[in-house]
Write a structure and sequence with these properties.
Layout lengths: L1 E3 L1 H4 L1 H4 L5 E3 L2 H6 L3 E2 L6 E4 L6 E4 L7 E5 L5 E6 L6 E5 L14 E3 L6 H11 L1 E6 L2
Parallel strand pairs: 2-9, 4-10
Antiparallel strand pairs: 1-4, 3-8, 5-6, 6-7, 7-8, 8-10
Amino acid sequence: MRQHPPELLDPARSGRLEIRACQCPFCTRHGSRAAADPNGRLTISVKDRAKLQTYRFGLRTADYLVCRECGVYVAAIAGDGAEARAIVIVNALDDREQFSREPIPVRYDAETREQRLARRRSACMPVEIQGI
């Protein structure tokens, strides 16, 4: 899998993006540092569908993408088609050094399903997945 978030990788913008560290067990175990730019766009290229693992947690509001080959948590995607919105895990990016600031710890476990969907619609970025 390869991620191409060109607007996120613009050095002038990446320094202003908020990096978040979800405190749930899944994200903590993966050392997750996530970013999203509602005005940007994320493109994920999947070369081999068999190497892509998707997982949904209890509220079933997003697909979490994990590489089956190396175990890296890549992104989380909520919604489908033109409505799909995502966060990118900056540790999975080739240019992750542009995102070196300390992440802000966040907790989302008190959110209802509706609150979580609303947050993702407003705070996450449009996404396109190529190759699936």
